[in-house]
Amino acid sequence: MTRNTAQRITTTLREEISRKTPQPTLSGFVEMDEVYIVAGHKGRPKIVHRIGRHWRRNRLRGAMGRGTLVGEKPPIFWMMQRNGDVVARMLPNVRQVTIEPIIRQFVQVGSIVFTDEYDIYSRLSHLGYFHSTICHSQGEYARDDDGDGYCEVHVNTIEGFWSLLRSWLRPHRGVSQESLPLYLAFFQFVYNSKARGMALLPSLLGLLMS
């Protein structure tokens, strides 16, 4: 088949996975973090023309610091239950009013939430969660609060998940903002299925044919 036909098929598969995948409820120990992926409007010349941006001869490069959707460096908000499922969402920006509805939707009240010191998480205790932070700016990456010899306060699990996603996206050589949520939904489905390779096929077919 041609490249365009293969692209249409894979896009249809991602759309159906995104539409049909049951969304998990996270509880217990939950880690949250945000990352920023450089994503413009690859393959969509009409959008590029409408926003008045010139074509780039080299790859899209995001600005330094925290990004936004408009700035072509959209934030990806992650929530992960330790030894459980993950939820990933592309957001227009990272603000308290943006993340609170997502947290309320997916994280059970009373859960113990671990984040870094970014102030968008400062209201978690008011929302009914037990909140512990790790201070990366001071060189802290794990802490033992209860004295049992196990450093339970960290976000290392979800940072490891981000490294997996980054490696998975790299061969695509850039993903547009319009397609990125579909890629995230597919990666979330694969991770939550706890299967790899051909072992994933029964879960994939079962979802698509449901």
Outline the structure in words.
The chain is of the alpha/beta class and 210 residues long. The chain has one domain (3-208): Ribonuclease H-like superfamily/Ribonuclease H (Nucleotidyltransferase, domain 5), CATH 3.30.420. 34% of the residues lie in helices and 14% in strands. It has a 5-stranded mixed sheet with strand order 3-2-1-4-5, sandwiched between helices. A hairpin with a 4-residue loop joins strand 2 (75-81) and strand 3. Helix 1 packs across helix 5.
What's the short version?
By secondary structure, the protein is an alpha/beta fold. The protein is built from six helices and five strands; from the N terminus they run αβαββαββααα. The chain has one domain (3-208): Nucleotidyltransferase, domain 5 (2-Layer Sandwich), CATH 3.30.420.10.
Could you list some keywords that capture this structure?
about 210 residues; alpha/beta; Nucleotidyltransferase, domain 5; five-stranded mixed β-sheet; 6 helices
Topology summary:
Layout lengths: L2 H18 L8 E8 L8 H6 L24 E7 L4 E5 L5 H11 L5 E5 L13 E5 L21 H14 L10 H14 L7 H8 L2
Parallel strand pairs: 1-4, 4-5
Antiparallel strand pairs: 1-2, 2-3
Helix pairs in contact: 1-5
- General shape: globular
Ends apart, CA distance between termini? 27 Å
Number of helices: 6
Taking all Cα atoms into account, the compactness measure Rg is 19 Å
- How many E strands? 5
What's the CATH H-level superfamily name?
Ribonuclease H-like superfamily/Ribonuclease H
| Quaternary structure state of the chains depicted | single chain
- Percent of residues in β-strands: 5-15%
Low-confidence stretches: none
Backbone structural class? alpha/beta
What percent of the residues sit in helical stretches (DSSP H or I)?
25-40%
Strand order, sheet with most strands: 3-2-1-4-5
Major sheet, described briefly? 5 strands, mixed
Order of helices and strands: HEHEEHEEHHH
